[in-house]
Amino acid sequence: MDIQQLVRDLKTTNDSKIVMLVADGLGGLPVEPGGPTELEAARTPNLDALAKRGVQGSMNPIAPGITPGSGPGHLGLFGYEPVKYLIGRGALEATGVGFELGPNDVAIRCNFCSLDAEGNITDRRAGRIPTEQSAPLAIKLRDVSIPGVELFVEPVKEHRFVVVFRGEGLGDKVPDTDPQRTGVPPLEPVGNDPASQRTAEVAAQFLAGAGKILAGEPMANGLTMRGFSAKPDVPTYEQVYGLKAAAIAVYPMYKGLAQLVGMEIVGTPGSLSEEIDVLADAMDDYDFFFVHFKYTDSRGEDGDFDAKVKMIEEFDSIVPRVAALNPKVLIVTADHSTPARLASHSWHPVPTLLVSDTCRPDACEAFSETESLRGGLGQFAAVYLMPLALAHAERIGKFGA
After folding, report:
1. Residue 57 burial (CB < 10 Å; 0-12/13-18/19+)?
2. Which residue in 117, 36, 111, 62 sits closest to 367, CA to CA?
3. pLDDT for 321-338, tens place per residue?
4. What is the pTM of this model?
5. What are the structural domain ranges in the chain?
6. What was the pLDDT predicted at 39?
7. Residue 1 reports pLDDT greater than 80
8. Model pLDDT for residues 225-252, shown as the tens digit of each residue
9. Residues 3-86+234-392, CATH architecture
10. DSSP secondary structure of 319-343
11. Which residues share a beta bridge with 350?
12. Closest CA to 253 of 75, 31, 1, 35
């Protein structure tokens, strides 16, 4: 069943508001058997109060056992089948920094990294080098020249930047050069078809040129390339759901993903509190709001359980301000789990909470992984979250006679 097509056929309109709060990488694991997850260890009185009003469930971003990247994880939240709509991280980052991709472009999300004297990675994120140091380095890489290809380099944030290759006959089927571990060198770029092999050869030339420029840097003396991708073709939120949608985020990649599904980027917040300021100001102007909080994911990737707990508590602190705006539907969820114990994304389902005056409150007393397993939404795939949101917003009609 194509759930998106069914929703297209049944969508209706009214003036209700839907707010989706996404704590990136929220789901976690206990450090020791029988211990709490990060969410369960955090003090979250506001989320727990919401849980008593709403209905909770355990959501699979893609499918059981499949670990999602950030792009597929968010696509699922937005109701797009992630396996059908493959949007690479490069396209997300490029769009997020305002780069307009063309038909002959391949975009790549790059990370500065630290290399030892043997060329092995010692830090995959160059110590999370601050943006004020990384941006000038990215701009220096514009000096690399590759015959027959137009090259664009754009800073993003911290250790991240974007490279775009523009030229005829370039493919995007090139696996990441990030080995996802330290103590080994970056992988060589390899194309999976003839057009992508051409891209891999261009990437190898870029890496060689960039290596010469970065050789003397104390931390960011190397780079890895991820998410080779061309411009995607996906239907918009307006087309599928009949919603005028807004995205409120700090990090460019999430702005890019939102733009690719037709959301408007609202405001230029630099913190979670400022994001809620933007939300309050924009409530009258849009039907749907995607509000993204990054640092639950970052601290999980750092393997820092206590720091992730603190980020969850910061997230909890803004909940009363959002609830006071009285959206018809308020959703609290995540794009995937990032347990500090694993220091990476994982396949584990994420707790998801839906609050509306049309929901059937369940018996859950708190918002957590354990409580979500007994919640009224049960276990479900992320692509069904938007239909649930529309139903509770009374924006979806009856199917059949």
Report:
1. buried
2. 36
3. 999 999 999 999 999 999
4. 0.80
5. 3-86+234-392, 92-229
6. 98
7. no
8. 999 999 888 899 999 999 999 999 998 8
9. 3-Layer(aba) Sandwich (3.40)
10. HHHHHTT--SEEEEE-SSB--TTTT
11. 59
12. 75
